[in-house]
Amino acid sequence: MHFTHHTFTYAYTKVRQSMHEKEGKLKMKKGAPWFRIYTDIRNNRKLSLIDSDDRWAWLCLLAVAMENDGMIEKDIDNISYDTRISVENVKKAISNLLKVKLLDEDDNHYIPHNWRERQPVSDNQALQKRKWRQRQKETQAKETARQ
Predict the structure, then answer these.
(1) Backbone region of residue 24 per phi and psi (left: phi > 0; alpha: psi in -120 to 50; beta: other values)
(2) Contact, 11 vs 61, CB < 8 A?
(3) pLDDT tens-digit readout, 29-59
(4) Which residues, in sequence order, are bridge partners of residue 11?
(5) Is the torsion defined by CA of 69, 15, 89, 96 positive or negative?
(6) Which of 83, 70, 80, 67 is nearest to 120 (CA)?
(7) Domains by residue range for the chain, with CATH
(8) Residue 119 in contact with residue 35, Cβ under 8 Å?
(9) Are the beta carbons of 16 and 35 closer than 8 angstroms?
């Protein structure tokens, strides 16, 4: 399977639009509508040890983790539903991801390895965004003044 920019754009959109059916109500899942993915992913030794189906499952599991504070409940049927991957393939992928240590686990959850380091929660996101917007306005004002 070859991943393109459009594949990741699609994954982003799907995470953003993700819905969960609970007690007859549709409810948006918590978590950011995106997660960080680093350019060194293509050189990751652990990822090179698993097949492309398991790599896709890993990306889908990262999206599930993002919606659940970095935790993935150990419920294969729910994981299958959330990732849109068959139960059989989810079991295979999780087994392989645990073997290569891309996933860790506790009694009730799977946790992407180094999740907190790779997906830091910024307490200042709103402030950073305001500063970025201010810099953008200043840059545009300078460009307009030059014209």
Answers:
(1) left
(2) no
(3) 565 678 888 888 889 999 999 999 999 999 9
(4) none
(5) negative
(6) 70
(7) 5-122 (1.10.10.10)
(8) yes
(9) no
